[in-house]
Specification:
Strand content: 15-25%
Oligomer: single chain
Helix content: 25-40%
Mean pLDDT: 90
CATH topology of the largest domain: Topoisomerase I, domain 2
Radius of gyration: 30 Å
Distance between the termini: 69 Å
Structural class: alpha+beta
Length: 728
């Protein structure tokens, strides 16, 4: 009898159904040849420091660093009963061998191995490695089981990752918390990720807008923007620094005869976008559907496990192996009916799919191939709206990958009027190619980011020849200004995490770090959510902004832990361990040295400074006493004219005992994605009624405080400032 251990009950039930294991036991399913049971995610984990020694319950700097030679494991109390079930089954005389059927990745390998070791099991193990949960894929997986020894490198990599996170996180978090008197969470991946957001925060804060003017001329059937032909910088050639000069040009050419001086066409082609891996799917789902990275992962996991509609989602590859050409063709034919007209548009050759190294390449397939639909027709009518929208992204991307390039002419026209030059740009489509897959949807691929927006802004120009004439019908002089960098979103932060290391000056290291950024596709969403949970980052609409606490942490943390370079090196090393190319002892020794350095760094900080007042804690970890009310100078209550005061949680009228109900809770806008109120913002707001910032506008109007976000997809937030108690 073989015991199969899956990672989740739902996966175990699917495997049991395929293997005809219909009998039921306490925490397992039974057939003639197999027992099928499950974990519930992690059942075993590393112990806490105080479980190593009770003295570590109290955080003391003199006890750091904690560097045990061996970090023991423990059974998680919440799921102890299921571990007991598995242990009993594993050690049962009825079971002669095991099959590891946890998720086919680093973390899934760790889940099984920790249970196996904690249970004291010594029986032989085989590994089930599948990339989709269809019945056919499960059957094929059981026909090609491999010895667990072939995945030893993957387990060693997972174990090193787990222990490295424990050593760095436990020690650095304790050391910096003790040094600054505020609970601080520091991690080998989350801290450099926070550093990316803080860098953008500073770029926005330090940005100084430059005002300029532009002049647009309307020639009837097309328009042109004034530019300086002799300018060395094409990007700024259209800027006119002086308003009077812009008006003078507009008046000078208005109503005048204009002549086309040059017409240039450049043939261009864009190859079809590549298939999705998890990170690229998360980025597109955020940009096009507004989904967070975490939501996309959960939806993709549901489409994989529950609906059997997608292959394994936690993949970092955008390629398929060569032996999947036939299966890819079958997948396309099995797509739901609405996609079949698009499938028919693929340029098949002798009835076969067109071959491309951008799709099929064994050398670029890692543990799993690209994320595509399964060769099982998805039940579109049963899918919830969000799952259906995500499936649509994957289905269209899979079809588009086999389409020919998008071909067009990039057209540039220079028109002259009254000795002033105007430039017009546009494009003429020669062959829609893969863009035909997205012609009737709002989910056009965004592989080129800002370039995509620029393309959308370009218009189709009429046929023009040198010497053609027009009359300048009207002119428009417009005041504009340079824009600050946009706040990071899930999409842009995921891209920065994935590509961490590309800005390194060390060319050899930059080349080494290709493909090993911050975290893995499977963990990046959780890292973002963790930063929000610990108060380092705030989500406002789609924007991710570093908080004051997050900014302060990066100011005091050493570059060695805040730099993506360090974490990128570690991730590269973990990948090499998984491929049996690096010694685990060497990696862990480096982690221990880094841990020792971080503790020493915190200990020798001479002028630690302080963190935001509301985050400070007493020596025993409790919050400090409530902040005493302080009066804001130079502003008065909009309801009664009395002074306004600040408390720990709100700004309100000082005459509240007399019955004035003016109250602005500090988090009233933040609850809906707006900014957290502080004394500076409230002072400006009460004085000017309106405060503008990079993320939007805050206004006092109609006895409400309102936040109008600059992101057009985000909703406005409103909150009444005449506070009423419940029932009053």
């Amino acid at each position: 009898m073989k015991l199969i251990i899956a990672e989740k009950p739902s996966v175990a039930r699917d495997i049991a159904r395929v293997l005809k294991c219909s009998g039921r036991g306490e925490g397992y399913l039974k057939g003639e040849d197999y027992l099928v049971s499950w974990a519930l995610g992690h059942l075993v984990t590393l112990v806490e420091p105080d479980e190593l020694d009770e003295k570590y319950k109290k955080w003391r700097m003199e006890d750091l660093p904690l560097l045990p030679e061996h970090i023991p494991t423990k059974v998680i109390s919440k799921t102890r009963s299921q571990f007991s079930t598995l242990k009993k089954l594993m050690l049962s005389s009825e079971v002669d061998s095991l099959i590891c059927a946890t998720d086919a990745g680093r973390e899934g390998e760790l889940i099984f191995r920790l249970i196996y070791e904690k249970a004291g099991c010594k029986k032989p193990v085989e590994r089930l490695w599948i990339s989709s949960m269809t019945d056919e894929a499960i059957r094929e997986g059981f026909e090609t089981l491999k010895p667990a020894s072939e995945y030893e490198g993957l387990y060693q990599s997972a174990q090193c990752r787990s222990q490295a996170d424990w050593l760095v996180g436990m020690n650095a978090s304790r050391a910096f918390t003790l040094r600054y008197g505020v609970l601080l969470s520091i991690g080998r991946v989350q801290t450099p990720t926070l550093a990316i957001l803080v860098k953008r925060y500073r770029e926005i804060a330090d940005f100084k807008p430059v005002e300029y003017h532009t002049v647009t001329a309307d020639f009837g059937d097309y328009q042109g923007v004034w530019f300086r032909p002799d300018s060395e910088d094409e990007k700024t050639a259209h800027r006119i620094p002086d308003a009077d000069a812009a008006q003078a040009i507009a008046q000078k050419v208005k109503g005048k005869q204009a002549q086309v001086k040059s017409v240039s066409k450049e043939e261009k082609r864009e190859l079809a976008p590549q298939l999705y891996d998890l990170t690229s799917l998360q980025r597109d789902a955020n940009r096009q559907l507004g989904f967070t990275a975490d939501k996309t992962l959960k939806l993709a996991q549901a489409l994989y496990e529950k609906w059997k509609a997608l292959t394994y989602p936690r993949t970092d590859s955008r390629y398929l192996p060569m032996d999947m050409i036939g299966r890819a063709a079958q997948t396309l034919k099995k797509l739901p009916a609405p996609y079949q007209p698009l499938v028919q548009g693929i340029p098949y050759k002798d009835g076969k799919l067109p071959f491309s190294r951008r799709i099929f390449d064994n050398a670029k397939v890692s543990d799993h191939h690209a994320l595509i639909p399964t060769p099982q027709t998805a039940p579109l009518d049963k899918l919830p709206p969000d799952e259906r929208a995500l499936f649509d992204l994957v289905a269209r991307r899979t079809i588009a990958a086999f389409y020919p390039p998008y071909e067009y002419d990039q057209v540039k026209v220079v028109t002259e009027a009254a000795e002033e030059s105007f430039r017009s740009t546009g494009r003429a489509v020669r062959a829609p190619g893969w863009k035909a897959v997205y012609a009737q949807t709002n989910s056009a691929p965004s592989a080129r980011g800002k370039a995509k927006k620029a393309e959308d802004a370009e218009t189709v120009l009429p046929p023009l020849l040198v010497g053609d004439t027009r009359t300048v019908r009207k002119t428009t002089a417009k005041k504009e200004s340079t824009k600050p960098p946009a706040p990071h979103t899930d999409a842009s932060l995921l891209a920065s995490m994935e590509n961490a290391g590309r800005d390194l000056e060390d060319e050899a290291l930059r080349e080494q770090m290709k493909g090993s950024g911050l975290g893995t596709p499977a963990t990046r969403a959780a890292i973002i959510e963790r930063l929000i949970a610990v108060g380092y980052v705030q989500r406002r609409g789609r924007a991710l902004n570093a908080t004051e606490k997050g900014v302060r942490l990066i100011e005091v943390a050493p570059p060695e832990i805040a730099s993506p370079e360090t974490t990128g090196k570690w991730e590269l090393a973990l990948n090499e361990i998984a491929q049996n190319k690096r010694d685990t002892a060497r990696f862990m020794e480096g982690i221990r040295r880094m841990t020792d350095f971080l503790v020493e760094y915190a200990q020798r900080t001479e002028n630690p400074g302080s963190f935001p007042e509301e985050e400070r804690k007493g020596a025993r970890g409790r919050r400090s006493a409530a902040k005493a009310p302080s009066v804001l100078p130079d502003v008065v209550c909009p309801l009664c004219g009395k002074p306004v005061q600040e408390t720990a949680k709100a700004f309100g009228c000082s005459d509240w005992r007399g019955g004035c109900r003016f109250t602005l809770w500090k988090d009233c806008l933040a609850r809906g994605g707006g900014p957290t109120l502080n004394s500076k913002l409230v002072t400006l707001l009460l004085r000017d009624q309106t405060v503008k910032g990079s993320s939007g506008v805050v206004k006092l109007e109609d006895e409400h405080i309102r936040f109008y976000p600059s992101d057009p997809d985000a909703k406005a937030v409103s909150f009444p400032y005449r506070y009423k108690k419940k029932g009053g």
